[in-house]
Design goal:
Length: about 350
């Protein structure tokens, strides 16, 4: 009589456990070929199972491409100090990182920095005390970055800084200067099409608290616009601090427009979309939408909605692709904990989103 199959077994999981148990029993480095020969599992399946077990930390792969079982202490715990629950881009990054942590079986402890330096320091200390294996830091206040970097390093915990560099940390984020250049090219293309390549003012809504690297978004935009519009003199390029926030940017742009009631062909590059939307509000309140073109950074949902309005002065944004942050950060963290060499600067791929693509 033929043997009855157990319909409740998962074949590929059984093969994965066979491989893991074999490595546990042997307790020595083994090649893929040796594992294939001894387990009689297809080489393709062995390869994929081994890569999955390495990714999850159950085994390690040596430089000579052999595999060895490691003792699994406990489920890994990573800390994440998010920028602020009030910032849409920060929330998108949090969601992406949370999903990525679940996918690889990592516990993620999430705290909120509330866009505030002292709070970021307190959160770093909380994560250190909790004994996490690694910390992701998304802190906008660059003046406390050395404090956080020093305290985390003293605790012997690996640190990955998101978007704003921190001492003793691996950097992960957008190439700010190049993202700024792309925003500037959006603005100059608009000026060429609608204003015959002229401009009376170029405004930059900075995020000074984040430090010089993030301010590269405005520096890049200025360089791109001045290269395309040589008639725009240096004194016609004005940087102001929008703090990356709506109200501060609305106030700053409103004061400028009040002081220049007759000026037209005004280009504005904002360090964040939230800041850009504040500028939009100031322009619309003064009925100057035909005189101003604004480009932002982040491509948050509210910015896309604003750009869908045919009369909007917001002519584009640069997406930093927050959905890619989580998987990339998790991969970087696991490589770091395995002792693999990682680059000190890791850039995401950003994407230009002109208003025309939203209106289609």
């Amino acid at each position: 009589m033929p043997k009855k199959k157990n319909l409740y077994l998962i074949p590929v999981l059984s093969k994965a456990l066979d491989i893991l148990e074999f490595l546990q029993t042997e307790n020595r480095p083994l090649s893929l070929e040796a594992i294939h020969q001894r387990t009689r599992v297809s080489k393709t399946t062995v390869f994929r199972v081994l890569k999955t077990l390495v990714h999850r930390g159950y085994i390690v792969q040596a430089p000579d491409r052999t595999y060895r079982h490691v003792v699994w202490r406990r489920k890994m715990r990573f800390g994440f100090a998010g920028q602020s629950v009030d910032m849409p881009f920060s929330n998108d990054v949090t969601l992406s990182l949370s999903d990525a942590a679940r996918a690889v079986g990592v516990e993620l402890v999430i705290l909120d920095n509330h866009y505030d330096g002292p709070t970021a320091v307190q959160n770093a200390e909380t994560l250190i005390r909790s004994g996490v294996d690694l910390i992701f830091e998304f802190n906008v206040a660059h003046e406390v970055a050395p404090v956080i970097g020093d305290r985390v390093a003293a605790a012997g915990i690996p640190l990955i800084a998101i978007d704003i560099p921190h001492p003793n940390a691996i950097f992960f984020g957008v190439d700010n200067y190049r993202a700024g250049v792309d925003a500037g090219e959006l603005l100059s293309a608009y000026a060429a099409e609608h204003w015959k390549n002229t401009g009376t003012w170029m405004l930059g809504l900075d995020l000074q608290a984040a430090g010089t690297l993030v301010q590269g978004r405005i520096s890049g935009a200025f360089e791109a616009v001045r290269a395309a519009i040589p008639s725009l003199a240096l004194e016609q390029c004005l940087r102001m601090d929008g703090h990356g926030q709506f109200e501060a940017s609305r106030k700053a742009v409103g004061e400028f427009l009040n002081a220049h009631p007759k000026e037209k062909c005004i280009l504005i590059a904002a360090a964040t979309d939230t800041s850009a939307l504040g500028a939009v509000a100031a322009v619309r309140e003064r009925r100057r939408t035909q005189h101003v073109a604004i480009a932002g950074q982040d491509c948050i949902a509210d910015a896309v909605t604003e750009m869908s309005r045919a009369d909007s002065p917001m002519i584009g944004t640069v997406s930093h692709e927050p959905a890619t942050y989580g998987p990339s950060l998790m991969h970087l963290a696991l490589e770091l904990l395995k002792g693999q060499p990682v680059s000190p600067y890791n850039y995401v791929t950003h994407k230009v989103v002109p208003r025309a693509s939203v209106l289609r």
